[in-house]
Amino acid sequence: xxxxKKMRAVFHDDWCSQCQSSMDVVHKQLYAxxxxxxxxxxxxxxxxxxxxNLVKVNKKAEIPTGMYACGMHVYxxxxxxxxxxxxxxxxxxxxxxxxxxxxxxxxxxxxxxxxR
Length: 116
Fold this sequence. Notes:
The chain is of the alpha+beta class.
């Protein structure tokens, strides 16, 4: 992960990459990742992988034990209209989340998945 992305993840993950304004969360969704289980985690950076493997769930209790999950935040900038998606890949462990990966898709890579 590049330095800019690391700083953005820590301080301002909701800033627009185009105009640096604060973006609004327009949608949140939780997904299970049935292809990844404890001991079989592999980092993926491609949007196509997530579009093919995310399974929508309504709450964490629906995710089987030992299966990774993914939280999706869809952002929209009120100033310039730019859209972005943040995916947080994590393993639910008891009442906590062991975060594995944080991904940003700023160029519409997930649009066909979200707006289908």
